[in-house]
Amino acid sequence: MLGVIIPARNERDNIGAVIESLILLKVLPKDIFLVDSLSTDDTVSVGQSYGINILSATKRGYQAALSCGLNGLLANNYRDFLIVDGDNEIRMQAIKKFLDDQYDYPELSIGVRPKAKRIGELITNSFFNYKYGIKDILCGVKRGNLNLFNPKNSLEYGLDLFHFSEMKGHVKNIDIDLIQRNESRLGGTLAVNIGLIQNLIFYIFRLAS
Q1: pLDDT class for 105, splitting at 50, 70, 90?
Q2: For residues 104 and 110, is the Cβ–Cβ distance under 8 A?
Q3: Which helix (H) or strand (E) holds 92?
Q4: I need a labelling partner for 2 at 20 to 30 A (CA). Which of 42, 52, 80, 106 fits?
Q5: Calpha distance 89→95 (Å, rounded)
Q6: Is 10 strand, coil or helix?
Q7: Cβ(72)–Cβ(55) below 8 Å
Q8: pLDDT digit string, tens, across residues 113-143
C-alpha cells in the first residue's frame, strides 16, 4: 500500500495544485498526508478542503516534516512511500512516472532535476552519487519502501532520513522537469550552502565513526 507525503510550509497558493495532480493520477485522498511545517497561512485549511490527512510537524524544517510524514505512514500500516514537495515545482507528468514505476525492495526511485541551484547542493549530490549512486539527494520527489526509513534521523535536509547503505546498487534515478519558482523552500543561498555542507560533514563523520 502506497502513502503519499506532501511536506509544506506556507504553501496556500500552491498546495491545491499538488493535491489535485495526485487525485487526477488516481491517488485516493485517504492515502495523501499533508505534513504542515508550522505554517502561518491557510495551507492546512486548503488541504482539509480536499479531505486528505493532515499531520503537524513539531518543529520547523524539511527534515522534521519528512520524518513526521514517514512516521505517520508507518503508524497507518503503509508499506511504500511517495514524497512530493508542496511547492508545486514538480510537474504532474513527473509525479506520474513515480506512480507508474514498478520496482522491488530495496530500490529507491528519486528524481533528478535539470540542475542544482547552489554550490552546496552540487557538493552534497556529488558525495551521495559517489557513495550510493544517488544523483540528486535533495530532489523533492522520492519513492521507496518504508523499511528504508531511519527513524533516528536528525540531520537537516533529510541527509540521514534513510538507510542509504542498504540502497547501494538499487537506486533508480529518474529525470524530471520542474515548474521553476523564484523563491526557495530551503531559504537564502548563503545560509543553505553553509547548512548543507555542515550537515554533510556531520554525515561523513558518522560514517567514519
Answers
A1: very low
A2: no
A3: helix 92-100
A4: 42
A5: 11
A6: coil
A7: yes
A8: 998 879 999 999 999 999 999 999 999 999 9
